[in-house]
What we know:
about 375 residues
Amino acid sequence: MARVASNEITITDISDGTNPITAFTTNANHTFAAAANGTVSNVAGFTSTLIVFVGQTQASYVATIGSTPETFSITNIAYVGSSTGWGTPSNASGTITIPSVSATAAISVTLRLTFSVVPTSTTTPVTGLTQDITLSIVKEGAGGQVIEIVPSSQTFFANSAGTLNASQTNIILGIESQGTTGNITLATSINGAAFITQTTTSTAQGGIAFYDADTSGTVETTGTFPVTQNGIARLAIAQTNLGNTGNTLTVKVTGATGGSDALTVFKVQEGAAGTGAIIVSVTSSDGTVFKNSAGTAKTLTANVTDVDTGVAPSTSVTYTWTRANGAAVRVTSISDRTVISTGGVLASGTGFPNIIVGPEDVTTQERFGVSVSVADS
Length: 377
């Protein structure tokens, strides 16, 4: 039997095994609105909480990791790459805040949380897991449009076979905007595939079940989505929108003249009897932001951990790298893992724990995902 897991640069998804660990942050991408001179007026408007599940049990935060099952602790918080002008982040029981952002701060930074989790089946913590938070600034008069999605939850629960539990409450996504974003577009992506524009409500997989034009009533409107700014106050995601074959559903809201935000809903799956699960996290050697189609190439590394042992699997790992649209990633060779558009070799097999991404590989925004498989004898 093969144990499998997959991940993108900021999210983790476990497909099978005992005691799977699922982790995400409640605010993985945050944009600060600033005056024309760069002054950020509402730094306190940002918080992001790390949520960890062991199977279907939400793990409890502890200041220092020990041996208590179903607990987790943040062991380090650090900016990746340059963080000029950004205040030192703080952690209060798993909730991250920032004290200040200066008027001369870098326009975008990546904040990396490193954490440890004690699963159910062992008292030994799994260490070195990571989640990234992207922080950006937009200035008034220079594209000062902001769209933000605020969720009521980000999880649906499923049994060990992946079948979603019946009668789960819809997830409500509040839609907030600042500046003049113009008409808005809604799009969704299942399991990291290409985004598909959604124009009408649907309870099918990949759809958006309902919407609400204001906050005065329940989210139960069906039909064509309003496209004007502030035409939608809330969206409702039903469990059928994720579907039994969906591990993640990402919803993206984009303004025609500026502003965009995306949020991912996760399947939290019950552990299955048998060999322990594996978990994979993807880290970048130099953050996740290029500027003006330039910058240092970034090495994306898939870090695989056996949940039962807390270390890398003892047997060989097969890696398969893909882009957001599902296309396979190609690299120069097995020894030179620089991403290329044509030629070379597929980044698939036992020799591809990492790939090297340059600014020429990213037009506006690109997601790189990896699936890993461990074949046990």
